[in-house]
Amino acid sequence: MLLDTDLHIHSRFSIASSRSMVPSSILAGCRRKGIAAVGSGDALHREWRQMWEESPGEAGVLVIPSAEVEDRNRVHHLILAETFGIFEDLALRFSPSAPSITTMGRPHLRLSGEEISHEVHDAGGLIGPAHAFTPWTSLYASFDLARECYGEERPDLLELGLSADSSYGAGISELRGIPFLSNSDAHSPSPVKIGREFNRMQVQVLTVKAVLEAVQKGGIAMNAGFFPEEGKYNRTACTRCYRQFTLEEAGSLKWRCPDDGRLLKKGVSDRAKELSDSPGEPRPPYLHLIPLLEIIQRVLGTSSPNTKRCTALYTLLLETFGDEIRVLVDVPVSEIQGLNEEVGDAVGKLRTGQVQLFPGGGGRYGRFSFG
Q1: At residue 75, does pLDDT exceed 90?
Q2: Residue 60 CA to its chain's centroid (Å)
Q3: 289-312 per-position pLDDT tens digit
Q4: C-beta of residue 153 within 8 angstroms of C-beta of residue 124
Q5: How many domains does the chain have?
Q6: Mean per-residue pLDDT, 213-237
Q7: Pair 64, 38: CB distance under 8 Å
Q8: pLDDT attached to residue 161
Q9: 57 falls in which pLDDT band (50, 70, 90)?
Q10: 23 and 147 share a domain?
């Protein structure tokens, strides 16, 4: 069977997370989206583990124990495990090096990536870089090679992040054989956030073990998510005014914006090109999508995807067709047009690549329009 999975989210205990990030809201958001397996997020936090263990759950949505941590080099790592008991064990192992482990959903560990990975592997978990190409708190922001971070502890996975798709890592020879994940990193249960990127996996049974085996053994059938240009860091740009520059221009300016003197941040697109050293390795297909509420917002011309008009039409589409991924990927365009012609036309253009992109950079999301 094929499962759509989002394995990296956060709880209400993480910085900048919505207070609504509680199990019931997360599971309801997954049902709306069509996500069949979701990462718990923040499983090193004791109270959050208890909240999941006390949750009644929701039919058809599997919870995968997961967490994100920051190491002493400010690299973020995604950890997956079969049980919350493994995370309880890891919390004990990490506590001497993590004063914030009892209070923060995403704790900072005074350990290297290799030391963290050793403990995770010893406990029976999986680990790899989160949002690996992002120019803040990522593997390739701090290192040129994965082994400089992980040493002898080879990563089990690599999360691409919102500003990259599979093509960005396919030409990096050291990543051969390491599966790519596309996850939302959601801090809110809003349909615009949760499941905005996901992985379609081939599994035999609906169990946590089967999902983890699919990650380990190449069972990812498809990645899906943003056009990379929609991400906040796709292009090299100023972190204040967001003016964009080529890599050569940024270097000649000593990485300072000539307009306001602020730091220029290297874009994910440029960073991936720097790191690529071989012909692209074949990877599962990557399906570029735009959240349905953002499509509705563009069609209705509203100031926000969260207006009553947008949410009313979104609810009608889901009541008619089942869930958001089905609307974006599977429902015949003619049927969507029968309910709302403009939304149907927009979904049709998305599926055929008639999307004009205005790349993001420097911390500002990119924009899109339909050609």
Answers
A1: yes
A2: 21
A3: 999 999 999 999 999 999 999 999
A4: no
A5: 2
A6: 97
A7: yes
A8: 97
A9: confident
A10: yes
Separation CA 142–CA 42 (nearest Å): 23
C-alpha span between 13 and 224 (Å, rounded): 27
Across the range 256-264, mean pLDDT stands at: 97
Summarised one tens digit per residue, pLDDT across range 315-348 is 999 999 999 999 999 999 999 999 999 999 999 9
Tokens 């440029």: give the residue: 270
* Beta bridge mates, 356: 369
What confidence score (pLDDT) does residue 230 get? 96
165 in the same domain as 22: yes
Residue 71 lies in a domain: yes
List the structure tokens of 38: 């979701």
Co-location of 220 and 302 in the same domain: no
| Residue 84 maps to a domain | yes
Same domain, 76 and 218: yes
The CATH number for 223's domain is: 3.20.20.140
DSSP secondary structure of 333-347: HHHHHHH-HHHHHHH
The reply to whether 370 falls in a domain is: no
Given the DSSP bridges, would you call strands 76-80 and 66-70 parallel, antiparallel or unpaired? antiparallel
Give the residue from 192, 211, 228 where a domain finishes: 228
Residue with tokens 């003016």: 243
Q: Is residue 252 part of a domain?
A: no
Residue range of the domain that includes 81: 2-228
- Percent with pLDDT over 70 in the chain: 100
Residues 215 and 311 in one domain: no
Does the CA dihedral 334-337-342-343 come out positive or negative? negative
- 70 & 178 share domain: yes
Residue 349 in tokens: 């253009």
In angstroms, the Cα distances linking 341 to 32, 86, 315, 316, 346 are 22, 50, 16, 14, 9
Rounded CA-CA distance 219/216 in Å is: 8
pLDDT value for 129: 98
Identify any residues that bridge with 3 across adjacent strands, giving them in sequence order: 201
Q: Strand, coil or helix: what is 223?
A: strand
Kindly report the pTM of this predicted structure. Answer: 0.96
> Where does a domain end: 180, 205, 228?
228
What is the pLDDT, as a whole number, of residue 287?
98
Question: Average pLDDT in the 132-160 region?
Answer: 97
Is residue 69 located within the same domain as residue 186?
A: yes
One domain, residues 81 and 165 = yes
How far is Cα 339 from Cα 279, in angstroms, rounded to an integer? 45
